[in-house]
Amino acid sequence: MPRKIRPLDPATVIAMSDVSNVQASNHPPSNHAVLAERIIGGVVTAASPALSPDGAQIAFVVGKVDMVKNKARSEVWVAATDASTAPRPLTSGEKNDSQPTWSPDGRSLAFVSSRSENKGEATLHVLPMGLPGEVRTIAIMKDGIDDVAWSPDGRSVAFTSRTRHERYDAEDESWQAPRKIERFFTQLNGEGWIYDRPSHVYVVAADGTAPPRNLTPGEFQHSGIGWLADSSAVITSAARHDTWDFDFASDLYLVPLDGEITALTHQTGNYHAARVSPDGRRVAFLGMDDSRTDPQNHHVGVLTLATGERQWVSRGLDRTFDSVSGSVAPVWLDDDTLLSCAEDRGTSHLYRVSADGSYAPVAVSTGARWVKSWDARSGSVAMAISSVDRTTELFALRDGAETQLTHLGAAYAAVVKPQSWERFAVPTTDATLEIDAWIMRPVGFDATKTYPMLLNVHGGPHTQYGETFFDEAQMQAAAGFVVLMSNPRGGSGREQSWGQAILGPKHKHPGTGWGGVDVDDVLAVLDAALARYPFCDPDRVGMIGGSYGGYMATWLAAHHGSRFRAICSERAVNNLISEEWSSDIGSVFQVEHGTTHIEDPTEYARMSPMTYVNDIHTPMLIIHSENDLRCPMSQAEELFMALRLLRRDVTFYRFPGETHELSRSGSPVHRRQRGEIVLDYFTDKLAPR
Question: How far apart are CA 189 and CA 529, in angstroms?
């Protein structure tokens, strides 16, 4: 249960219980608890489509939330591309099955499962398709399995897995050896210690006759796998050079099944998600050349194996091809054409990309929606697509005709009745650019009434809001709030200069830094919404944001607090100086801000909301997770301690066992409790006076 730190009581108290505990004490759950559980607990989604070699079938993952057992679970399903048969499950149970991957002959399907009773252990299975036979277990790994890829000859399956040193195996920490730290990036949010459990490339016999073999032993981390056409080697992304934690570069490496590892690129940028062309001559990948600048729009690159020549082939479209939904390697449609995914002004779509860059990328999917994951083979394209009022469903595209194959969210939609956005554009304060914004009316909207409004600001900052299902917006609208969102400068989905507008003033590509034009854009959208929509009550405006959005929340409280009745700052960056010292990615702040705070503390202090904490008079709700390594708990503690010492109106909730991902992938009960806390707080603070 989250712990609530009360502003007028120094004691730490239990703020709320889960529904079962409340019911056991004869107190019914609050309306907001019921609402949050309905929206969070009923979602069923499609993800990770994988097309069979002939393009006739799609294996995919169906995700569900089990509120009773307080966990998420997933199953592997299969659907006919032509919709001739109904989608059906291939696996079932209370664990997570994922990463379906077809054998080259289409007769078998590999998948990963968490069925083991041992914590963190994953198993790799092979399931016969269309023929009698039992599921075979071909690998058992202590610390997860990822990046599953079947060799073209069908004899082997490659994957990545973390390899923990045995000195840290003891569950009782009193028996573990001390950790010797000599590098940055020792921990990762959601995973904990990683430097002593690097991710390696393994290969295992597809028939299970031999155990997995580590192809990349040593200290370095590896991700992604693309097989050579002759099955003799794989290509992976890694930072195997000595200065990797200072230059932040990652390269593509050729890893033979037997032989020495060789670099294909050379420490200038970030290159990942490799896929080899059908003729075996070239490698497509994603990335960018300058590892010392972030953000940048990532592009599709092509490397010729024989010569090492590298070319960016998607730069005819100034958008990032590294989607917020997660990197998916470009797919070769033939030796001359690739398919990849890019963000575009609140949407995410597939684009046909020339392998020699001879023409600008051409949109294959369109509309107000997000392609979240996808695959392409033999003339068929499989897509998992979400829109504002529809959870993620499976679609197939063939010969220009698109077919929806699943309706997993139909029952959910009938109960929840998701709301839609209205998109509108707002000029920047200098009238040179246009900010994308969206407004969602509350459930039961009556145009003759006025409503409280919640301004939401996304994290990142290099990410985007837009045309996809967002459970938090639906909860807020269902609770009677107008929901306002936008994509201010610094975000993604736009030209590269848009994202780089808030780089630090001392960066080689100088911008305003955080707290500059990004704030101007957020306030411009707020002003425009209040002027355009008379149903928004200007006296009942609240604001909520997480991570960088939490930074914006605290910044607005200090600089523009009179605009808001109450503000919620979640998993926030409040002090950039202490954040650089303690975040799992703190050492990369210099590539965004242009300097470290050791070299120049003035810029970090200027951009830090804590510098101005004495100016905060707006009531604040702080929410943070105990195991957040991205924005450590100290960020919330600093803000709470300061506001408490100043005798300001502040409430602080701490969620045990959760990470930076609480609102997205935290335990279902904690996600419901968080939703209830937020809705209760703003219902009280934004009530009519």
Answer: 36
- How many alpha carbons lie under 13 Å from residue 518 in its C-beta half-sphere? 30
Domain segments of the chain: what residues? 3-39+417-685, 220-362
Instruction: Report which residue type is found at 507.
Output: H
275 strand-pairing partners: 284
Tell me: the pLDDT tens digits for 183-197?
A: 888 888 988 888 888
> Which residues pair with residue 126 across a beta bridge?
110, 136
pLDDT tens, position by position, 549-565: 999 999 999 999 999 99
How far is 568 from 660, CA to CA, in rounded Å?
A: 16
Segment 580-594 mean pLDDT: 91
Angle ∠(490,324,589) on CA atoms, nearest 5: 45
CA quadruple 405, 409, 415, 417: dihedral, nearest 10: -90
Asked if 430 and 516 touch (Cβ cutoff 8 Å), the reply is no
Q: Which residue has the tokens 């920047």?
A: 428
Residues 6+ apart with CB under 8 A from 27: none
Greatest pairwise CA separation for the chain in angstroms: 74
Token pair in block for residue 58: 């799609």
Closest to 54 (Cα-Cα) out of 109, 110, 102? 102
Residue 97 CA to residue 126 CA, distance in Å, equals 12
Inter-residue contact 658 to 671 (CB < 8 Å): no
CB-based contact 344:362 (threshold 8 Å)? no
351: left (phi over 0), alpha (psi -120 to 50) or beta: beta
pLDDT digits (tens, 9 = 90+) for 370-421: 999 999 999 999 999 999 999 999 999 999 999 999 999 999 999 999 999 9
Contact 64, 44 (CB under 8 A): yes
What pTM, to 2 d.p., does this model score? 0.94
CA separation for the pair 332, 340 (Å, rounded):
9
Element (H, E) at 589: helix 589-593
DSSP notation for 252-285: EEEEESSS--EESS-SSSEEEEEEE-TTSSEEEE
CATH H-level superfamily of 220-362? TolB, C-terminal domain (2.120.10.30)
List the CATH code of the domain at 3-39+417-685.
3.40.50.1820
**Predicted local confidence at residue 6, as pLDDT:** 53
Measured between alpha carbons, how far is 156 from 154 in angstroms, rounded to an integer? 6
| Spatial separation of the C-alpha atoms in residues 534 and 274, rounded to whole Å | 51
In this structure, what are the phi and psi dihedrals at residue 518, rounded to the nearest 5 degrees? -65, -45
